[in-house]
């Protein structure tokens, strides 16, 4: 549309400033913008240009007749132009120049023939060298117009491509920024001098929290040396960053900072010429992963314990039963003065048998049969045994049972074992007149069974190892009681939480999650 308007204005100017060649031929270059406008415009715009040209011709021409009209307006060339419109714009510049040269030559020739047809005195096209110049000038001017238009269109297309690429680049950059800000990793890119070029939001938040710089913004980090920034927030600095800047393809290392463990990965950024231009550094807090790995090792050890228990059960229990039977028989036939020794031997055999039973219980990492029962019924069934133990130790038991605890899917035998182990551990930790408290608490989505004592409490280093198999602080302990408790709790979709402070007692809370649904 813009080109059609420009061609129309050009036609008007050509008519306004037209002149005559030697008083015979009218010098009017209006055919050039007309032909160009038809070739580059749609059919409708081309027709409008033709009508506009004819109207101007009629207005600016004094003596109009049919022959002069047909020759001066170039009407005979119009069909060729309209037939070429479809394919003209698909051709290369050279073909376009050839076509416009032909059309312009024909149109200019018709203008030169017009005086002969009208029999103007003194004019002969073949005797005038000026006519050759006229034709050449017409053709050259037409080719020059095509060249300028093509160059202009090419620049416009190039500018449009640059704009589209720029818009696409901006969109992709913003998309990439949002992606990196939502990735739960700390990501930064640095130049070859180790200066920060970009950071994502998790890294910014990490630096804010560790460095207590809540007002820190990304712009303040840009241009800073990454090593110096990390020195502000970490006690140990990764060395893989320097290796990445030296061109090492991958540099992964673990960085320990207090109780946290971080995996730092550094990758070099290279140009097309394989020159290192910087590096990208990715940090991930793998503390929980390390804990899971530790738990996996714990599970593997439990599996090993299960295999050991399964293999030694029949190999050891049977001869132990035989030995115990013969010891009882020998005791009956021995003098009473040896009863004390037989008692010690039998107790040790029972203790060894108890250790084997604990092994087997700990190895039972399988789905146990459960039935709907009430936790309080299990506590009441076990309370006589607990009271008997407490009376022997000069201690007392206090029950605080909630009225809102629902029925749950439980294995009563295992829950009794769990409660008995926790209660006896609590009694052994207290002196005379100690109080053992068994409490139940019902919440919206869980039920808690709390076993508390008034003992000396458990030091923090010991708390971290309480549930490890074979770890014990007792002289004759096996270190399997609490490991068995946590195993039972997990089989009932629960966990055990320890709350202890030296000098103020200890509470073991067994939390049954989603307890009403089993």
From TrEMBL:
Top class in the EC scheme: transferase
SUPFAM superfamilies recorded: ATPase domain of HSP90 chaperone/DNA topoisomerase II/histidine kinase, Homodimeric domain of signal transducing histidine kinase
UniProt-listed PROSITE patterns: HIS_KIN
Catalysed reaction, written as an equation: ATP + protein L-histidine = ADP + protein N-phospho-L-histidine
Domain (Histidine kinase) ranges: 311-516
SMART domains membership: HATPase_c, HisKA
PANTHER family for the chain: C4-DICARBOXYLATE TRANSPORT SENSOR PROTEIN DCTB (PTHR43065:SF46), SENSOR HISTIDINE KINASE (PTHR43065)
Protein name: histidine kinase
Natural source organism: Paenibacillus sediminis
């Amino acid at each position: 549309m813009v080109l059609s308007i420009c061609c129309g204005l050009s036609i008007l100017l050509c008519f306004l400033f037209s002149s005559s060649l030697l008083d015979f031929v009218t010098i009017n270059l209006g055919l050039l913008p007309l032909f160009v406008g038809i070739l580059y415009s749609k059919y409708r715009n081309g027709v409008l240009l033709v009508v506009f040209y004819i109207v101007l011709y009629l207005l600016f021409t004094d003596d109009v007749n049919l022959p002069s009209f047909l020759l001066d307006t170039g009407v005979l060339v119009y069909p060729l132009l309209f037939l070429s419109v479809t394919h003209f714009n698909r051709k290369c510049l050279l073909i376009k120049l050839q076509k416009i040269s032909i059309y312009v030559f024909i149109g200019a020739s018709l203008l030169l023939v017009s005086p002969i047809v009208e029999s103007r005195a003194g004019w002969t096209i073949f005797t005038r060298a000026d006519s050759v110049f006229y034709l050449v000038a017409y053709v050259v001017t037409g080719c020059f117009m095509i060249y300028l238009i093509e160059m202009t269109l090419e620049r416009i297309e190039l500018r449009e491509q640059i704009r589209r690429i720029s818009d696409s680049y901006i969109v992709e950059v913003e998309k990439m920024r949002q992606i990196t800000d939502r990735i739960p990793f700390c990501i930064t890119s640095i130049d070859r001098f180790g200066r920060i070029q970009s950071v994502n939001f998790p890294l910014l938040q990490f630096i804010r929290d560790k460095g207590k710089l809540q007002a820190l913004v990304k712009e303040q980090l840009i241009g800073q040396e990454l090593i110096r920034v990390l020195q502000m927030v970490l006690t140990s600095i990764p060395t893989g960053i320097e290796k990445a800047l030296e061109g090492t393809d991958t540099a992964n290392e673990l960085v320990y900072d207090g109780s946290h463990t971080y995996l730092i990965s550094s990758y070099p950024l290279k140009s097309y010429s394989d020159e290192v231009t910087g590096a990208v550094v990715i940090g991930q807090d793998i503390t929980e992963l390390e804990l899971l790995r530790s738990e996996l090792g714990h599970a593997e050890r439990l599996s090993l314990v299960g295999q050991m228990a399964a293999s030694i059960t029949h190999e050891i229990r049977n001869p132990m039963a035989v030995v115990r039977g013969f010891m009882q028989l020998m005791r009956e036939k021995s003098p009473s003065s040896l009863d004390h020794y037989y008692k010690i031997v039998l107790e040790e055999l029972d203790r060894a048998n108890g250790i084997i039973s604990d092994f087997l219980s700990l190895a039972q990492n399988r789905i146990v049969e459960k039935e709907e029962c009430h936790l309080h019924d299990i506590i009441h069934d076990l309370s006589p045994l607990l009271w008997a133990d407490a009376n022997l130790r000069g201690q007392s038991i206090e029950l605080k049972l909630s009225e809102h605890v629902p029925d749950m899917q439980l294995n009563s035998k295992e829950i009794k074992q769990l409660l008995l182990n926790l209660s006896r551990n609590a009694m052994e930790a207290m002196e005379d007149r100690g109080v053992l408290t068994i409490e139940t608490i019902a919440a919206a989505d869980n039920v808690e069974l709390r076993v508390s004592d008034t003992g000396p409490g458990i030091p923090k280093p010991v708390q971290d190892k309480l549930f490890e198999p074979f770890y014990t602080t007792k002289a004759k302990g096996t270190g399997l009681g609490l490991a068995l408790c946590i195993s039972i709790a997990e089989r009932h979709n629960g966990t055990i939480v320890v709350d202890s402070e030296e000098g103020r007692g200890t509470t073991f809370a067994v939390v049954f999650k989603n307890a009403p649904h089993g």
